[in-house]
Amino acid sequence: MRIGILTGGGDCPGLNAVIRAVVRTSVKEYSSEVVGFLEGWRGPIENMVMPLTMQSTGGLIHRGGTILRTSRTNPFKLDRGPERIAENIVKNRLDALIAVGDIDTCSVANRLHQEHKLNVVCVPKTIDNDINATDFTFGFDTAINIVTEAIDRLHTTAESHNRVLVCEVMGRKAGWIACYGGIAGGADFILVPEKPIKAQEVVQAIKTRHSRGRDYSIVVVAEGARFESPDGATEASELSAEPTHDSPSDSSSIGNQLARLIEAETGFETRATILGHIQRGGAPTAFDRVLATRFGVKATQLVHEQKFGRMVALSGSKLHDVAIEEATSSLKTLDMELYRVAEVFFG
Ligand code: F6P
After folding, report:
1. What is the value of pTM for the model shown?
2. Is the CB of 170 under 6 A from ligand 1?
3. Phi and psi of 265, rounded to 5°?
4. pLDDT tens digits, 3-47
5. Which of 56, 139, 220, 336 has its CA 20 to 30 A from that of 196?
6. Which atom number of ligand 1 is nearest to the Cα of residue 127?
7. Would you please indicate which residues are annotated as catalytic (active-site) residues?
8. Centroid of ligand 1 to alpha carbon of 131 (angstroms)
């Protein structure tokens, strides 16, 4: 067989481990060949390819990012995008394509399978952990370890200065990183997109904590968190307090807005840290290396079993496969039972 592989959507630690596993399994177990498409769906549209061998993919397990590079290209938004992909699959004599990506990448793969009859298998990845039908995506564990370490560091400086430190983490629509990272880091309040709160709730929690003799606090906020307005609707912000110190470049981010509100309402000196892409960079954790490797091996097996239109997934400690559609029809938002665990430690 000849198999194509691409990585799409935002990068995350573990992508190279999948590529390595797919190549190794294909060559060693099935005497198959693998070709890499560059820059997500742009690769098969523009026929940007690179041969992948055991030699060229050795020593990749610890490397973050993706040697195939990535993009957020959507072929269905481009002129003859899907048709060009089909043509280039034929041109490269490929029997199947493995798409490693987020919910958008997998949704495209599903449409290519359903509407254009392409032989596609998906591997789910994202630091956000928001893909349905799998307990975890690789990249997430690395991200929450980075967040935890950052919060540990914020703790010592917050305590030294009697400050409130707000830590903004990734997660536009799902609060998995905020909740796991916040619990692990011992956050005193966590704001997630799934549970808009009244601004006064966080203010009150900090006042309560400080009235118990604590002189510092750590607040974790997901980038997509929103406040609830008095009429119950959610809005980007109800905050208007002006900055009282030099703000980082994006003063409109939720982290900065929250820091200004907390300082204005409590009188406690407050600073914001936006972790941003640091959460996506660097080497994968052992958990992510193993999960990514297992996903890569399993996806290659699915291809050779001709189980197309399927996505590899983790359920408990076992791998299985699901229809791509099952994973992409909706977003996996935060398990609110986990948030209730976090709430025990607020205030
Ligand atoms: O999907 C992963 C993710 O890191 C999100 O958490 C974040 O909102 C988004 O990507 C950032 O995208 P970009 O790197 O394109 O700015």
Report:
1. 0.94
2. yes
3. -85, -25
4. 999 999 999 999 999 999 999 999 999 999 999 999 999 999 999
5. 139
6. 2
7. 128
8. 14
Residue whose Cα lies nearest atom 10 of ligand 1: it is 10
* Distance separating alpha carbons of residues 298 and 146, to the nearest angstrom: 28
Is the separation of the CB atoms in 31 and 61 below 8 Å?
no
Q: Quick one: pLDDT band at residue 205, thresholds 50, 70, 90?
A: very high
Give the phi and the psi of residue 12 in degrees, each rounded to 5: -160, 155
Q: Is the pLDDT of residue 233 over 70?
A: no
- Separation of alpha carbons 85 and 47, rounded Å: 8
Question: Ligand 1: distance of its center to the CA of 73 in Å?
Answer: 14
Place of tokens 């990448």: 105
Give Cβ neighbours of residue 293 (< 8 Å, ≥ 6 apart): 17, 18, 20, 21, 61
Tell me the pLDDT band of 252, cut-offs 50, 70 and 90: confident
CB distance 8 to ligand 1 below 6 Å: no
With 0-12 CB in 10 A as exposed, 13-18 as middle and 19+ as buried, what is 59?
exposed
Go through the domains of the chain in sequence order and give each one's CATH number. Answer: 2-125+285-327 (3.40.50.450), 142-278 (3.40.50.460)
* Per-residue pLDDT tens digits for 105-129: 999 999 999 999 999 999 999 999 9
127 lines ligand 1 (CB under 6 A): yes
Q: Does ligand 1 have an atom closer than 6 angstroms to the CB of 117?
A: no
Q: Which residues contact 92 (CB under 8 A, 6 or more apart)?
A: 2, 4, 35, 47, 49
| Whole-angstrom distance, CA of residue 142 vs CA of residue 12 | 9
Q: Residue 229: pLDDT above 90? A: no
Mean of pLDDT values over 233-261: 64
Distance 200 CA to ligand 1 centre (A): 29
d(CA 284, CA 289): 6
In the prediction, which pLDDT does 251 show? 77
